[in-house]
Amino acid sequence: MSVIASNLTKIYRLKGKNFKKAVNDVSFSIPTGEIAAFIGPNGAGKSTTIKMLTGILTPDEGSVSINGMNYKKGRKKIMLRIGTVFGQKSVLCWDIPVLDTLKLFKDMYCVSDSVYRENMEMFNEILGLNEFINQPPRLLSLGQRMKADLAASLLHNPDVLFLDEPTIGIDVLSKERIRNFILEVNKERRTTIILTTHDVSDIETLCEKILIIDNGNLLYDGTLTELKGIYNTTDLEDIIKKIYLNGMSDSERRDSEMREGAVLRGEAANA
Q1: What is the pLDDT of residue 257?
Q2: Average pLDDT over residues 140-161
Q3: What are the two backbone dihedrals, phi and then psi, of residue 131, each rounded to the nearest 5 degrees?
Q4: Helix (H, G, I), strand (E, B) or coil at 194
Q5: Rounded to whole angstroms, what are the CA distances from 33 to 67, 73, 126, 159?
Q6: Is pLDDT of 232 > 80?
Q7: What is the distance, to the nearest Å, from the Cα of residue 98 to the centroid of all Cα atoms in its chain?
């Protein structure tokens, strides 16, 4: 299921006559089955864009298309086909066992018994869900809660998964388990995944495509390999620091556009 953002713009009204353009005419597309990193410094417009992609916020201008559907006419259908994990806000019921929340989600999404059993086996095998499934989230560690949130978001087999900083504050072993789980879901189900993160290891381990936003403007839309080629280095952290500090120069933008154009021409020739 593809995700297309077309000329997204979001303006926040401040006190008096002041306003802030949080997202400015942002457009991109993510093909079915791709894992894309959507990154930028704090306050760059990442979360606002993700909230528009997931239907939480309505753009002031532009539109979102999820497999050809938009939120104005197909909100319910889209909501049944997407999953969301916001690293700092859980979807779990705080005081009841994780298992009870998953059963509630099973009923909400009309998940069949066979799909439920299959998914629960997968969650336990890769995430170790049975270690804490009978405990309420308020008693779980951050890593355990994140694993439970992933399970809840994927219980209904969504076509698109939005992950907003899913490994924030999590220990190394839990991060590895979560990354392996994301890769497995993408491989087995061709789930389209959009990931926001400040962890370079997340990007290099999981993502093929990278989108970089700053001050509400999309600075880069391409592959990791192309980005490293533009800056002639394999040090992604250094590249990101340079972009955050200085943006992209005109020559770097031209190089990026030329590479993207070559890719598109190649795809057209092979079609």
Answers
A1: 60
A2: 94
A3: -65, -25
A4: strand
A5: 12, 24, 20, 9
A6: yes
A7: 23
For 138, residues 6+ apart whose C-beta sits below 8 A from its C-beta are 94, 95
CA-to-CA distance for 136 and 188, rounded, in angstroms?
A: 30
162-216 tens-digit pLDDT? 998 888 888 898 899 999 999 999 999 999 999 999 999 999 999 989 999 999 9
The pLDDT tens digits for 89-139 are 788 999 999 999 999 999 999 999 999 999 999 999 999 999 999 999 999
Residue 264 in this model has a pLDDT that exceeds 50: no
Cα–Cα distance between 210 and 226 in angstroms, integer?
A: 10
| Strand locations in 31-159 (E) | 35-39, 61-66, 82-86
Helix axes of 98-108 and 142-154: crossing angle, nearest 10 degrees: 20
148-183 exposure pattern, b = at least 16 Cβ within 10 A, e = fewer: bbbbbbbbbebbbbbbbbbbbebeeebbebbbebbe
Residue 261 has what pLDDT?
Answer: 54
Whole-angstrom distance, CA of residue 146 vs CA of residue 137: 10
pLDDT at 268 over 60: no
Which positions ≥6 away from 200 have C-beta within 8 Å? 236, 237, 240
- As beta bridge partners, residue 39 has 212
Q: How far apart are CA 151 and CA 158, in angstroms?
A: 11
Where are the strands (E) in 165-259, listed by range? 192-196, 209-214, 217-223
Structure tokens at 41: 């410094």
Residue 128 CB neighbours (<10 A):
14
Whole-structure pTM value: 0.88
- The C-alpha atoms of residue 195 and residue 35 are separated, in whole angstroms, by 7
